[in-house]
Amino acid sequence: MHEGALRALEFDRIVEVVKSFALTPLGAIQLAKLRPQTDMRSAQTALAATTECVTYLDSNNPFTFNCPPELESILTNLAIEGLPLEAGQLRGLADFLTSVETMQQTVTQANEGPFPTLRTMLVGCRSFARETKEIRDKIDDCLYIVDDASMELRSIRDQLRKQINRLQKTLDSYLRGKDTARYLQERVITERGGRQVLVVRTEHRGAIPGIIHGSSGSGASLFLEPLSTVEINNDIVALQENESAEVKRILLVLADKLRKRALDLRHTLTVATNIDDLQARATFSRLLSGVEPELKNDWRDEHPT
After folding, report:
1. Cβ count within 10 A of residue 27
2. What angle do helix axes 262-287 and 11-19 make, rounded to 10 degrees?
3. Residue 302 pLDDT > 70, yes or no?
4. Cα(260)–Cα(248) distance, rounded to whole angstroms?
5. Spatial distance between the Cα atoms of 70 and 17, rounded to a whole number of angstroms
6. How many whole angstroms separate alpha carbon 230 and alpha carbon 36?
7. Does residue 145 register a pLDDT over 60?
8. Under a CB-based contact definition with an 8 Å cutoff, are residues 57 and 279 in contact?
């Protein structure tokens, strides 16, 4: 159809309304490309699919996709070999893939069915139950990588907790000790540059042997790391670096398991996009109480001369 005719019909405004019913960013992108069908058979197929989806929605719950808003960026990152996904990205993708599989099962068992077009569209959907379960097992609802995500992570964190506890007890002894507490500006433990330190009065700089990590804005106090805690702090910093590296490795392994199924993932995303496209058109049709028209190749078939 000529672009001028489309503008006259305000077709772009119709597309924007239909697109607003998309449940996923991928569906919205596809709907933005909507153009009138020029082939009779294609138009009839599209109309029949929309009618079937309207019937489905009239007797069943609406489609739901637990889709993260940043799905496009997640998929972009997943396409880059060797790049770990963030914990939130993995959980978001896992929730989305699970919702697609749930939708497939729901359509199969739907009321007033069967719905042959919908079921045919869902044939390409693949199950990622194993991968999504592993993601949820290793990343909790707060997006924290759990200790049991790997034996190495469990070991590192056990050592880290022991050293942190040891450090706390050592520093507490300075806060409580009669010979050391009197040199403190405040009886608190604070942090400077990732190291746990004491707040010592400037005039007692040499009273407690240690390393100075700066001073307060007023210059009245110094941030002191006692020599007795330097080695412990070093161990903690090293363990934290090991923890970070192990977490990154775990996230990469989880992402790579999805990358190994790139073709299955592409099929499933295509299914979700096409279903989203269709449900948006059907939702728009229901909003207008639309009725499927009967198409004819030539108006003269109905009006012979």
Report:
1. 23
2. 120
3. no
4. 18
5. 22
6. 72
7. yes
8. yes
Q: Which residues contact 181 (CB under 8 A, 6 or more apart)?
A: 174, 175, 187
How far apart (Å, rounded) are the C-alpha atoms in residues 146 and 136? 10
Tokens at residue 157, please? 């964190």
**Which two tokens mark 243?**
């923890």
Closest to 156 measured CA to CA, from 89, 247, 61: 247
DSSP single-letter state for residue 212: E
| Model-wide pTM > 0.90 | no
Question: Of the candidates 58, 97, 38, 60, which has an alpha carbon nearest to the alpha carbon of residue 254?
Answer: 97
- Residues 234-282 have pLDDT tens digits of 999 999 999 999 999 999 999 999 999 999 999 999 999 999 999 999 9
Q: What angle do CA 222, 224, 226 make, to 5 degrees?
A: 155
Token pair of 33, please? 């490309």
> What integer pLDDT is reported at residue 305 of this predicted model?
54
